[in-house]
Design a protein that fits this description.
The chain has 281 residues and is mostly helical. The protein is 80% helix and 0% strand. The protein has 12 helices and no strands. Helix 4 packs antiparallel against helix 11, helix 6 packs parallel to helix 10 and helix 8 runs antiparallel to helix 9. It is globular and about 50 Å long.
């Protein structure tokens, strides 16, 4: 992984934590995450005329990603309803790199270096530690929040492997990302209106600016990740992207006033060690 890719993924991680925190702070998280998808579509629109239309061999990956993202958003919203950002976010993101590594090895025949594997394990250990020792009960495990978050991580693994492969197959990562974001926004809003009907309109009127902001952050973050997966091993990019958990921890403590504990500090140090190993690997 080059230094350019490394720092680009770190920037993507910061943006990912920011839009998740904004969703967590909203009262109606289902509507907010639907608006985020619409915001991603709006971000993609100006790019569409300048990228290639995906070939027939790419569309199955886009279709699969759209389906996986539906499950991802559903369980992410339920996880945020059930637990603190500092507990649910690390677990939703932190379990995925290990699963992604296994998937990349067996499905894509992509084996990371030993040092990269060490970094992935350290980073995942830190994120899981931060989650399992960090809920509302001063270390008590919130089973509902953890269950929803762990299911979310399965969907994260699925769309990471799908989109990493699709972006590599497409003419460019930008082409894949733009058409994915455009379609994803349309699908998400269709689902939103199906479940909420016209009651979604007043929320869109008052929350549109948040939707645009979170959509832009989400689109930029994931576009960088998909581009990076065409330049470096998917498992390493997926793991490094989860440094977003460090940014989420800072947001949860200073913006959401969630409690800082010794366990979270120890987990953060473990994550940093994993990042260093990934960079050296």
């Amino acid at each position: 992984m080059t230094l350019t890719v490394f720092f680009a993924v770190l920037a993507a991680a910061a943006m990912h934590a920011a839009w998740n925190a904004l969703i967590k702070m909203r009262g109606d998280r289902f509507a907010s995450i639907s608006l985020t998808s619409l915001g991603m579509s709006l971000a993609a629109l100006p790019v569409i005329p300048f990228v290639e239309f995906p070939g027939a061999d790419v569309w199955p990956f886009i279709a699969a990603s759209l389906a996986i993202h539906i499950g991802y958003r559903l369980f992410l919203v339920m996880a945020y309803e059930a637990g603190d950002l500092a507990q649910t976010y690390p677990l939703a993101r932190g379990a995925a790199p290990l699963m992604t590594t296994v998937g990349a090895i067996f499905l894509l025949a992509e084996l990371p270096t030993l040092l990269a594997i060490l970094g992935i394990v350290l980073l995942s250990t830190g994120t899981l530690l931060m989650s399992f020792r960090g809920g509302r009960g001063l270390g008590r495990l919130d089973h509902r929040a953890v269950g929803f978050a762990l299911t979310t991580s399965i969907f994260v693994t699925g769309y990471t492997l799908t989109d990493g492969s699709g972006a590599r197959l497409a003419a460019t990562a930008s082409s894949y990302a733009a058409w994915l974001f455009l379609c994803d926004g349309l699908v998400s809003m269709a689902i939103g209106f199906y479940y909420r009907g016209r009651s979604l309109l007043p929320i869109m009127k008052t929350e549109w600016h948040i939707g645009v902001l979170t959509g832009l952050l989400s689109a930029a973050s994931y576009w960088i990740a998909m581009w990076a997966m065409t330049k470096a091993p998917i498992a390493s990019v997926a793991a490094l992207r989860e440094t977003s958990i460090l940014f989420a921890m800072l947001i949860s403590v200073f913006a959401l006033r969630e409690k800082m504990t010794g366990w979270r500090v120890a987990a953060a140090l473990c994550i940093v060690a994993g990042v260093v190993a990934l960079r050296l690997g």
